[in-house]
Amino acid sequence: MRPKNDRKWIEAIINHREMPVPYNFMFSPVSLKIAEQHYGSPIADAINLPIRMISPKSIKPLYADPAKFGDTAVDEYGVIWSTNAIDRGAPIGPVLKKPALSGYRFPDPGLPYRFEDIENWCEKQKDHYRIIWVGDLWERATFMRGMENLLIDIVLHPDFVVELLDGITDYILGTMEILFERFEFEAIALSDDYGTQKGMLISPQAWRNFIKPFVSKIYSYASSKGKKIFQHSCGNIIPIIPDLIELGLDILHPIQPEAMDIYYLKKEFGADLCFCGGIRTQDLLVKGTPEQVRDEIKRLKETMGKGGGYILEPGITIQADVPACNLFAMIDEAMNL
Q: How many domains does the chain contain in total?
């Protein structure tokens, strides 16, 4: 049976109470259209998502429709993105062509347009568990400088990397300050990919030297305001999970089962973390049968959900290659509490 209060439901799960396993889904444009045609719109209400998410507005939304923006769109940081109707696109060339910030001005986190819809959203979603995305850190640096350049900079220009991450962190903290002052919600989310399918993008020690101090600032500020912390990172990040726990992380997302043994994660770190994710997206959702999808959902509920600390979700945003029958099987079985 579904608990009557979604906020208390998610809070109980985070606190490792034995409860029905909650679920969360994030949709790319194609999958969202398919889901809403089947279940209704808005999808969050139609399928009763207990978690609701929003982020401050950007001049380049996550999914920039080429019909509206054309072939490219520019974000607040000056990064130019390709656009398409299927996914978020990709950065086109670095905005920082050299390892220096001279002449570059970080965006203003307090511009009014960024927050104009959030108050109404917070009030409307007050019966659910509300999470607000506050930005990206290392990932943002790769968008601004280019992944290859930034990896080289870590070796050749470490002071620049620190300066860049410090500037991005200030923008995130400025965003958080406004959110905390103006709105009521339960948690912040940081989107920051640290892993590849086989290991980390940089060594664990480099992560600790360059990234951890700034993640600590973000987590500490959120914790000081009584907010829970939701961290998104794709890939295999097992070496730094103890660091994230040390810093105060509450929910780790999306625990890609193709990259990490999620049952090992539950055994090793389940007492300290709530996990969100774990449904296989590279083979099961794309190539499996609806029956196989349903069976996997049941297995995840029984194993990962034991003792609380688990929220069911795919290991990545639902992409356009997921057949409708598997999409519906996943959602229907997730809702079967």
A: 1
